[in-house]
Amino acid sequence: MANAPPAARPQEALLLEYVQQLEKIRNGRKMLHLHLSQLRPYNRHDTHLRTAAANFDPIVRAANGQIFPLRNGDIFFCYKKDIQVQVDNVVQRLRYLFGEDPLVSEEGAEGKEFATILDATTQYDDILYAARTANEAESKRGGEEKTCEDASSRLKARQEKGEPLTPDVLARIETALVRADLSNLVRRQYACSIDENNSTTQIFSELFISINDLRETLLPGVNLTSNRWLFQHLTETLDKRMLALLSKTDRFTVSGDISFNVNVRTLLAPEFMAFDDNVSAGRRGSLIIELQKEDIFSDLGTYLFAREFLQNKGYRVCLDGLTYQTLDIIDRRRLGADMAKLFWTPEMAEKPEGRDKIKRLFDDASKSLVLCRCDSSDAIEFGRSVGIELYQGRYIENLIAEDNRRRDLLKIKRRLEREAEGADGIELAPPPAAKGKGREK
Amino acid sequence: MAERGSNQAAGGDEAILVERLRKIADDPRDHFAAHLHLSRLRASNRQPRFLEIAKRAFDQLTIKTQSTLFALGNCDLVLVCNKVPIDQTDEPIEKVRGLFREDPLMQSGDGEMEDRFVSWYDLASKDDFDRFYATAEQLLAAQVAAARRAEAVQSASAKGAPVTSTNLGEIERKLKAVRISDLIREQPAVQVGAGGKASMLFRENYVAMADLRDRIAPGVNLFSSPWLFQYLTEVIDRKLLALLAQRERLTERHAISVNMNVATVLGRDFQEFHQNAGKNANRIVIEMQIIDIFADMNAFAFAREGLQKRGYRVLVDGITPLALYFFDPSLLKADYFKITWGPEFQSDTQDSRIVAARETVARAGKDQVILARVDTEQAIRWGLNLSVTRFHGHFIDRLAMALAAKAAGAATG
């Protein structure tokens, strides 16, 4: 990021400045306000918002209007009256695009407004008010962010946008990967069952190479995931490094069942054969190979072959990457994996048919289905209501940390109690081992 | 069998097998052979990396017992055992059978007793021995001939170097700069009506990849990595859109189709294209690949909806008959689904997968399904058997040409 441009001024500030100047030339101008921030979260992804903004490109290029895409998703668009028809067309098109969203389908109901058009000639004050409100909300948010984020995390946020991954950058990374020691970039995340007290039991752990840390180590400033296909190619290289790490060290093989992601193509490469040769037959049963659905469908024949091979050898196969949108399209049972991972998204709980759909499709799989990317208690609440038993994600990591804290506190408490007892009476023999839990993981 | 590689040119394992049989002939007691006909698998299942894994199934057996595995040039495997209880061979052979479970070779028909996959020979019996010896000699002769042919062909038509991250940047730069207007080809998709009457659905416009390869990366196999190929198609998309927008193609009578990535459809270049060509949207079919769709279903749903609402039709491409057994394309809400036929599916006629395919066609609606890569009449029959009436492929090109000639004839005479 050495030659990064000075931080750009936020769109909200530019909008306010623009509106202030508009006062002198307000005649014949209008302001369109698209309330995209009110869309459902799953309709508010970057692709959606970018597409919405791109619809204005022709008008902007013809210098007939000025667009301000705000951070919260809203769009302000200022234009001259005489292109009203063009603007109407764009708005109509966007209404169509987001037609399924309650914001559009229930437009007119209280608080449901997709687009507002304000005439600068007669409603200038309203426009100024809207621009000020947007700007204040943004500076408030920015201020909060600054106070609670340290410098390094702000840097990180900027890098996440970062320089895009190009073929040349990819080549540099792959060259660097040959020499890099990745063992300290391996992270683990647990898949757990959770009891009614939110206490966790670790069932297996997924090992993965932290892409963020890899980037920091090799090429800070490059956004490795900015191009889906180049990233997918990179994962094939990472697969091989991961396999080498797994077969080389005992470090990862000490505790419990382990899962890791690989590409289907990697399973037939010499690197996997070498890995397989190094794994004892008994150990294979505790290894779970995770395969992505898009990878599977890019070459089904190879997947079917590889799955059979893995299962014959005793490995377990996990179908990874199921989402709410894909789970009824894909025939999970016929694909014959031993487990499946479903990405949690709030729409599962929000959509009226969500619960029934998941119950119906995973009726036979409650023990082999992992609800992952759980980032809040909503995920677990939902999972319980449909009979899911295994969970993974940031929220689960927090629960585990909490569990550990609780356990540590309990230990300290016991020690204090013992010490108190010891002080009271005669010195005792060494205290008995903690009961019940066995060895701590 | 560690020395295998070095013997390949001279007749490979076939030569060693014949040699071995000659030795056994002196005292063939307790010997038997199993001939695994992997050469009868579908071509798509005969990949070297598959066969490598199949061979590994016998590792334990050949280490622990007096048995040898011969890997033949035609992909067959021959197991020769001495004083080995025959039950011990069951496990590895069943493993291999399992690996190829999806292949029709493993699916014996009703009432069929014959095992087309394995032939057994009791070498102690003179009859069996002679038959197997003759077979081995034939295999050797075939292998020597094949090796000679391969040598001649290899230098001429090597599949080429793979695309890697190292040469990708250069290929992309050349691709961006190269002219492709003369590399655009057309192929019609046709509806076959009652009584064999055919009518035109649309013409697919595509870039001739072999010619493009010669222009930007001669000697490179652009398909070697599915991911890097997909990356390059995004560059091609943008060039194709720019070309189509200015071409007269859009004002022709027939509809056209083009392949696009989901990301392209959602991007700036397509917006621009729509500004120029939007009035013809109802005569444009946008084809999107399954691999691209599955990578981000949300983005696809959004793109599809946007296209359909603006009047375009959406086609899902890249579905094999095999895939129909594992997912239901009708839920993707596209206007058309293209099933890619291949001769390897000829043998599928009645099994469960055909049933699945027929169900999918029924669910999606037969008018939504187009059978592609139709190169022979057989393919058409296969499709008709599933009630498909819309076709695309070389065989159809000839049909379309005949159609055009007839139309011209009717017009002039």
Q: How many helical elements of chain B? A: 16
Q: What is the CATH top level name of the largest domain in chain A?
A: Alpha Beta
Assembly status: heterodimer
Mean pLDDT of chain B equals 85
Query: How is the biggest beta sheet of chain A arranged?
Result: 8 strands, mixed, barrel
Q: Do you know the CATH topology of the largest domain in chain A?
A: TIM Barrel
Largest interface: A-B, 54 and 60 residues
Low-confidence stretches of chain A: 1-6, 146-150, 426-441
User: What helical percentage do the residues of chain A reach?
Assistant: 40-55%
Quickly give the structural class of chain B: alpha/beta
Which regions of chain B are unreliable across 5 or more consecutive residues at pLDDT < 50? Answer: 1-9
Q: Shape of chain B from CA axes?
A: elongated
Which range does the strand content of chain A fall in? 15-25%
Strand order of the largest sheet of chain B: 6-7-9-10-11-12-13-14
Name the overall outline of chain A. Answer: globular
Estimated radius of gyration of chain B: 27 Å
Please provide the ordered H/E string of secondary-structure elements of chain B.
HHEHHEEHEHEHEEHEHEHHEHHEEHEHEH
**In the CATH classification, which architecture of the largest domain in chain A applies?**
Alpha-Beta Barrel
The CATH superfamily of the largest domain in chain A is identified as EAL domain
What number of domains of chain A? 2
- Determine the strand fraction of chain B and express it as a percent band: 15-25%
